[in-house]
Amino acid sequence: MGSATTQASAAAGAALTAASGVDLTVARELFAAARTVGDSSQLSGALADSAAAPAARRKVVTDVFGSAFAPTTMSLLSTIVDQRWSSAADLVDGIEEIAVRAAAVADSSVDVEGELFRFSRTVAANPELELALGSRLGDTSAKGTLVSTLLEGRASDATTLIASSLVQQPRERRVRQLLARAERLVADQRGRTVATVVTAVPLSEAQATRLTATLSARYGSAVALNTVVDPSVVGGLRVQIADDVIDASVSSRLADLRQRLAG
User: Fold this and answer.
1) pLDDT digits (tens, 9 = 90+) for 24-71
2) Under DSSP, is residue 222 helix (H, G, I), strand (E, B) or coil?
3) CA 24 – CA 12 distance, rounded (Å)
4) What are the domain boundaries of the chain?
5) Is the keyword Kinase in the record (predicted)?
6) Whole-angstrom Cα distance, residue 31 to residue 24?
7) What is the average pLDDT across 166-171?
């Protein structure tokens, strides 16, 4: 990510924090805007053209979306195109990011991170589903409808909106990659860090509470815990937070022992 995009993303995030009336309609409209801009190289190029005056870029946004979108959505889009982005692709990513964050703001009482993680595990466990959602062929809106159907009654409206929107605009990204990024964005918007914990057996409530407290103290922020049960770890646990991996599993110790014996 270029420095221009980093600064632009920060400005867009600040605008979202300051905005009022952010609901799922705003998030839905932002996702729609990301699809529209992403599907048109001419439009994305015009909105990301740093040589054009900000007022001219805002006028393009108004001309394209003004009659259909809510004032809050238009204000956020105007702020986004006011910024200098490193590329047109980064601009589209920026709109999509604010859409995900807006969904997190709109439904703050729901464990959206956890729901996205569980859906990602469902996709990982079903190769045919992953292929259907990740295929370049077929109607993209049908993929969104499929996700909405799968999540009906099983996930919140915010999670359903995020997942069903992302599969319609993959832009060369795998489905699980899209969901993982959304999970991180939601956690960040809520001031949390996502930790994935792999254990041989499910953690008890007391164990999960202690682990969460320990990780929160270590990383200096609240931690959202996602647990994967995998008997192959034998015992202990493996924790991953971003690029950090804490491997205290029995399988890892056995592998180290075998390597030492072989050496």
Assistant:
1) 999 999 999 999 999 999 999 999 999 999 999 999 999 999 889 999
2) strand
3) 18
4) 3-106, 112-188, 194-262
5) no
6) 10
7) 92
